[in-house]
Design brief:
The protein is of the alpha+beta class. The chain has seven helices and 25 strands. The strands form eight sheets. A seven-stranded mixed sheet has the order 3-5-9-6-2-1-17, covered by helices on one side. A four-stranded antiparallel sheet has the order 22-21-24-25. It has a three-stranded antiparallel sheet with strand order 14-15-16. The chain is globular, with a radius of gyration of 20 Å.
Amino acid sequence: MKKLYFLFFIFFISVSSGKLFSQGATFVFSNTGTTPQIDSAITYTGNLWGQYINSAVPIKIHLYYMNLFGSTLAITIPNGERDFPSAPIDSVWYPSCLANAMEGVEINPGEDDMNIYFDNTHSWYFGTDANCPAGQYDFVSTLLHEIGHGLGFLSLAKLDGDTMGSFGNITAADLAPLVTTFPFPNLQNKCSIFSYYMENAGGQSIVDTTLFPNPSVILGSQLKSNGIYFNAPLSVAQNGGNRVRLFAPAVYAEGSSMEHLNEATFPPLNANTLMTPYTGMAEEHHSPGPVTIAILEDIGWNVNHIGLENYTSDLKMHVFPNPVEDDAYIRLDKTVENEDLEVIDMYGRVVLSTNVSIEKGHYYPINVSQLDHGIYTVRIRDGVFKLIRN
């Protein structure tokens, strides 16, 4: 059984017993130490992810196939941006690929969006048929997982001395001996957009520094509380109305804690198990799962739900343009009559509500110019969609 790690912008798998989005995304890989067979599996995996997220800006990844740290399968270090013009939330780190997608242009020219390192001493299956044999690890599944971290499954959490917890307190020295192909950012004790939506069992935001100073021992206790949840509208709706439980065991696991879905909640046969912290030989997952896609949508990605057989919404909705400044237009795949349309802010408050009748395929306008800039959820009946107000 392998354990999937993260440290700051760094994710491991280690052994343990107004801008328009294009349709889809293009992944551009530069590889070191690989073979044509590995390169083919890499391209295949990029194409898999490319059908779920939308970005007009190519996502650039440098992948190394090299000798790592004994039990470690793979490591990902994503690049980051914050306070860019289209950022829905200030003073919060976004993966650079997400920031580029929101901007519609590359704001980190010449830089990779993530570095991924694979250990070349393990036995890998490089096939793309989801038929990994016993005694090998499925390369596609592992790479799909690692790219998921680079797309936004990162908290920037750190625990020093098993007591002092922090967000955004990781430096390049913590990543040694690895060195990124891009300048390592000064995190300045800022959290990520992923951790921004984290709360404890009592519903308290763990990035609220009035409750949990950053850094502090009390924050450190939260990182080991075994009760941390991701609470944002789309992922909660996709998870049966429940907050999404994250991996935060009582014994802090560097690189795994705070960076994954909870293993016990999403076991190996669950559709959402890709982003849990453990994987085993011959275990394969070639789909991110609907909860993972909903989390990515909650943090700001424009996504596609194609091929997610467990996606729960019966009503599919398209909002254009997105991000929006003043007027947004809603198109549905079914006609609705006398239904409540609600716009909900990131705190769960209904900030706009109206009764609507919308004919299938027609655009219905709503004016959002009175709303503050940020991320909102548009909801009609069981249909939900993420809206970004510039």
